[in-house]
Structures are given as C-alpha cells and as structure tokens.
Structures
1.
Amino acid sequence: MNQVRVAIDGPSGTGKSSVSKLAAKEHSWGYLDTGAMYRALTWWCLDQGIDLTDQQAVAEASRTFDLRMGTDPSAPSVAVGERRIDAEIREPALTEQVAAVATNLEVRANMRGRQRALMQQLARETGGVVAEGRDITTVVAPDAQVRILMTASEEARLARRSKELSSTVEATRAQIVDRDKADSTVSQFMTAADGVRLVDTSDLTFEQSLAAVLQIVQEAIDAGERE
C-alpha cells in the first residue's frame, strides 16, 4: 500500500503523541502534530499583541503566519519563520490560552486546509504519514486508511500528565479537564466515530499501547496489499 495516512485522535494523557511518533518512525513516515499548530498560532498572536478574543484577527493570522512544521518523527519541531518555538508552546501559561484559538471555527477551517496539505505532502514524500490531534479521524482526514481513537480514563490521563509535567494531579486537572471541555465544543475526540478503531490505554503500558496501534496499522497495510 502506497501513501498510507494514519489519523490518531484522543484527549491529552492517552499516549497518542509518543505512540504516533514511534509508529511513524517504525515505517519511516512523516509525523504531524496538529495540536502544535494551534499552539504555534497562539504563541504568534501573543507575540504580535493580537487579542485572542478578536476572532477575526486571530483567523486572519491563521491564514498568514509563517508556520514551519518539522515532521521527522525522531526530531519533530515547530517554528514560525526562522524562530524555533518548541519550548515556548509547551509552557503552562500558553497552554491555558490555547482553547481561545482552537475553538475559533474560522481558525479551525483554515488549519484543516494546512493539515490536509501537509498530510498529502508527507504521504507522497515518505510513503506515509501519522497525524495526531483531536478531530483528525472525523474532520481532517475521514478518508484515511487507518483511523484510531486513543482514549483512557480521566484518572489514568491525569496521573500520566502530572508525572510528565512534574506537577500535582490537581494542578494538572485544570489544564487537562478544562482544555478537553473547551475543545469538545468544536471537535469530537472522546467517542470513536463509525469506522474508527478504539484503543483504550487506561490499563496498558506504553509498550502495549504502541503494539496495539502498530497492529492496527499493519492490518490495514496487509488488507491494502490483498486488494
């Protein structure tokens, strides 16, 4: 099967980012973190003094800002113009403000165009792409050969993210739960749509989660080769 597109959705703390990168690396495919694109736009708006509540101004920025996504799964990166902002877009202060940008419907429409173009380019150049985010399986790439929703219990997600962020579960709860609540108003990422495979990582180790996703991808490749 040529130009395999893998779409992986799910909330924070399910392991989808780490699994997506390694799944792409396993097949020497490109990797696209669509959530980082919204974070980059948030950073750009704040850097340029654009009011995040000015939806039209933020939407215009989403069309014109010079976003550059590094798509090597071994070393993904995010830059605006020549400036790398990998660390900046993960800062808690920015994370708290991403929802204002990610729930802007015009921004989402503009970003979908960018994401689809990047997925097509990566699939063409490397033979495949693994794109992860919150509405990739249903809105951005509903025709992808592989569509997976990774989920986990709230307790498991909070425990994982608090460990990653070196913070308490309660401190992490506001980031995770509030962000999920805001994003769920514009995208569906908690329930698998028709044709989307569900991988519940609540009781899985990281290695088991990765194995489950790789198996689904391989099944799709095998099925494609038999056609």
2.
Amino acid sequence: MPRWDPKAQERLRAAALELFVEQGYENTTVTQITERAGLTRRTFSRYFTDKRDVLFAGSEQLPDAVSAAVLRADATLPPFQALLAALADIGGLFAELVPHAAQRRAIIASSPDLQERERTKLAAVAEALAAALRERGATTSEAKLVAQVGVAVFQSAFERWTDQPERADFTACVHETVTELASSLAPAAALVTTPEPESS
C-alpha cells in the first residue's frame, strides 16, 4: 500500500459508519475502525481527533459558510429573506460537508453525547447567523430571533433531505420547509392585534 492513500479519509469514515451501525457508536473503538479500514491509528489521527470527529469533521466550516452567504445576499432583502437566500445559496456546499447524511443522523440520534455535540454545532451556526444579520443592520433582538428560526428551518430541511435519499437537492427541502412554516403561521398571524393606544 502506498505511504499516502488519497482515499484514506473516506475509507476510515466508511469503516466507522459501518461499525457504528453494526454494533453501536459507544461499543466501537478507533482500533476497530482502523482495522476495518486496513489502516493505522497514525493515519486515523491525521484526519480525525477521535471517533466522534468522524461524524463532525467538516461541520466546523458551516458557521462561516452560512455567515458569508448571509452577507452575500441582496442588500435590499429584509433579515429573514436574506437568511433564506443564504440557506439556498449553501445547499450544494452543505451536501458536500455532510457525507452519508442519513446514516450520520441515525447514529447521532442514538447517543446523548453525539446529540450534545450536534446542539453545540447548531448553536455556533445560530451565533454566526445572528452576527451576520446584525452586520446587515438588524437589531440584536431581531437578529437573534431570525437566526433561531433559521436554524429550525435548517434542521427541518436536513431531516427532509435525509428522509428522501433519492433527492440530492437540499435547497428544495429548504423551500418546502419554509412553505410549510408560512402556512402554519398564517392563522396565528391573523390573531395578532396591535394594542389600542391608551386615552389621555
């Protein structure tokens, strides 16, 4: 085998996912992963810090990617529309950053430790979104609210995407999620009234 294998990272990831599914994340060791992949622990350490990192490597790019996409959006768009444009913009990149998405989602759902790591990742995305929206002129409270809704849209779109493996278009899942959200909020919006000013 050559000293440098250009497919080593993918071999390690594939081996890890197979073992996580077969025997559970908690019961799988780095040694088992490297043996399944036919590689060494040293090679594993070149790409991943630990077995958990197999599922999250690359996701650290997501906050910067969504922030940059928000700032690239048309300057005339209000905050929520700018955020949606950003999610649509990074759809293709997201698909690249999260390989084996359906398997990854199922494995994370099986482990409290991984779920906590996922929440930390999403919190970082929300912070990056809020910061970008503030830079575009949104108030702090507006930016925080829109960012939190944006993360919820992101999560729902991701679930749609992984539930339909025959579809490769993450952006379409974002649009479907937003359409469903708008439909569900329409009745509630009709109930919101502006308080009458108090008479002097």
3.
Amino acid sequence: MKRALISDIHGNLEALQAVLEDIDSVGVQEVICLGDIIGYGPNPCECLDLVMRRCKHTILGNHDQAALFDPDGFNPMALRAIYWTRDELDSGKGGPAQVNARWDFLGELPRFIDDGEFKFVHGSPRDPTNEYVFPEYMYDARKMEILFGKIDQYCFMGHTHLPGVFTTECEFVTPDECDHTYALGNNKLMINVGSVGQPRDENNQSCYIVLDTDAKTVTYRRVEYDFEKTAQKIYAQPDLDDALGDRLKRGH
C-alpha cells in the first residue's frame, strides 16, 4: 500500500490543491493528514473541506486545537491569525450545516494514531500535539532516547515544518542527503514529513511524503504551487501579518 502523509497545510489552498493533484498522479491508496490544517493561511474553510473529503485519517494539530480552545504559547502573529481563523470558520462558507460539520470534524480529531508499527502524531511521540522535535535535538542523546522510547518502530510527525529522518544513532537525514528516498529497516525512526502550506527549510515548494509499506520506503516529494497568489490573499487581510505571505516566498 502507498500512503501519502501530509501536514501543516495552514490554510494554504493553492498548496493543498497542488499536492493533492500530485498525490493523484503517483498511485496512492490513502491520504493521512498529521494536523495543522488551519492557522496562518487565508483559506481555512476550503482547506478543511478538502481534508474532510480526501483524507482517510487526520490528526489534531496545535493550530487546530487553538481554534477550538484557548491558544497556548502562540506568538502575537500566530495569535492574531488564529482569532481571524475562528471568525472565518464561524462566518462559514456553505451555510450552517457546513459550518457545524467543520467544527464537529475539528472537535473529533484524535491526538495520534498508533497501529504498533506506524505511529502518526503532529508534534512528538511524547506530546502528540505540542512538542517540537527540531533537527538540533540529535545533539541531545538523552532527549532522543526518551522520544524513541515512546515508539515501537516508526513515528511520523510534522509541526516543525522541517522534513527529515531522525535515527537512533542521533542522526538527522535531510531529503537531499538520502536522494529523497529513505529505506525503512529494523531500527526505530522518527520521520518528519515536512509542510504542505508553509515550508521552512529554505525551499518554497510544498513538501509531503509517500509511505510505501510494501517496498518499505518513504519518498519525499516537492511540489510547486502559486505562492504569490496565496501571499496576495494574506496581504489583503488586515488581521493576517504580511510576514506570513513573505515567508511563503522564501520557504522559511
């Protein structure tokens, strides 16, 4: 089976549409979303509708959670964006039934999915929603030991927007360093799938992975999209900081 794993869409409709089109071209059987469908970006309702329709499983992200409850630990830019996102979801496109369906979908999202071999989270194996696992953590052997102790085999995550593979040898392997395909062996791995809607690894192309459970590989795919169009939508909203549009162009 081939599964597409997407994460951190952040209300970026142009990016999500481009990624789903790419997914349709590579023979994927199901799509799993690792959270943060909304927040930062200008099209939260449309992105939610697409995820609800296209993804077999979806995990709760910290921005999804912040739309439901009081935001915790958000910087002022992210806070303004989530309050604006709440208003967009409340005002709703599509009528009261669709508004309620979106809120119900968000409210029922699980914090993680774990079938033993594969664990899917937004943040980390220890804190599925909020904990970041940055590449520099490979220098903290104790922290890595604790995190790997929380998984049986493979853990897939998002949250940092930085794609790459963490190994039990305290390595972080970027997609470029493994020629965009990494073989799944017997050792435990934590795998960040990157970001669809707000890449932060100095590459402004959307990022997602294809997990091939037969070939035992993960393949990183980069997809071009019209980030200028998304940025212009952000600039047109007074409650969305212009920096959120600028960073789409930089990929950081």
4.
Amino acid sequence: MYRKILYPTDFSETAELALEHIKTMRKLGGEKVILLNVIDISEEENLLSTIFKIFNIGSKEREEIEKKLKDESLKKLDEIKKELESLGFEVKNISVFGTPHEEIVKVANEEDVDIIIMGSHGKTNIKEILLGSVTEHVIKKSDKPVMVIRRAEG
C-alpha cells in the first residue's frame, strides 16, 4: 500500500517520533524511504545576513558556511539512513536549501511517493499552536496522503 515513503525531517523531537512510525511501516510493506532535510533559506538568510554584517564576511565565506550546513545535514541523514537500511528499507538522502513546505511537496511529486510521514511541529513552532505551519502547508498543497505524527504531550 505505502511502499515509497517521504520522511521530511528537521531533526526535531517530533520528527523523531515520526521516524518511529516509519520503522513500523516496514512490516506493512514499506520498501523505500526518501529522507529529506530542507535547510530553510529564510532562517538561514536572516542568520547569515546578520553574521555577514557583524563580521564583514564575503561570498567565499558564505559558500563555506552553506557547504558546512549541507554537510551537517547529510551527516545526520546518513545516521538515519543506516538505521532504516538495517531494517531492510532502501533509502535515499536528499538535502536542499529552500522553503520547507515547497520543497517537501516538490520532492514528494518528483519521487512519486505513496505517502508523506512527518511530525506535526518542527523546531521553531510554539507549543500552543495546533499544527505547525510547514505541516499545514504540506497538507494543503500536496496531492499525496500525509500522515502527521503529533508531538508528545507534556
């Protein structure tokens, strides 16, 4: 039924809860997982712009910082990949710069996944909000089924 799964992650606690659900999908016929980390350009742009102004950093340094961000993202995805491969999944890592909900929907379509499984909130969402804005946008814009895993109460 859901053989090809897209797992967008920001490495937050809620994303980790979603990963636990993905692991159970192996027993239900899940075969392939697309791991996706979107490095949010709006967050990065705000942070980097401030740093560049304070320290008078040029474009070469900016490229180095972006490379480090991408390398760190891929390193974290590789850890998850190894874990899922040990369960028998075929796994593909994707790390991109962009607007998270747009990239999630784009990758879901490009990879022709059967389902998107993601956490209800990422790192930056306020606890009282019912559903995170990225998740809400993905639900509204995607033609694919979306399984949303709520964060633990507490």
